[in-house]
Amino acid sequence: MGATTYDHAAALALAGDARVTGADLLPLAVHGEPDVRAAVAGREDCPTGALVSLGYDHRPEVLLALLGNARTPTSVVRNLADHGAMDVARAAEQRLRGIASSSVQ
Asked: Can you give the three-state secondary structure of the chain, one letter per residue?
């Protein structure tokens, strides 16, 4: 797939297609539409580099999808705990509490 650009509908379909994996998700992770980026951010098979990059996205829906992904690195979650959007910061804090409580058990 490489540097191919997709229209919104095609990109959204590809972002949800389990057959699209690894490096093929990267162009979708930088797509212009936030719902496409959010779909990629929520995928458990999203490459770690893309998860880190998506942590700098400005759209709350992308960041919330990222926080819902168990594979999102803890460093990204920590950074989002200081986010200006309260719903993003709250979700990151809840995720950090979950990480802390699971490491205590």
From this structure: CCCCCCCHHHHHHHHCCCCCCHHHHHHHHCCCCHHHHHHHHCCCCCCHHHHHHHCCCCCHHHHHHHHCCCCCCHHHHHHHCCCCCHHHHHHHHHHHHHHHHHHHC
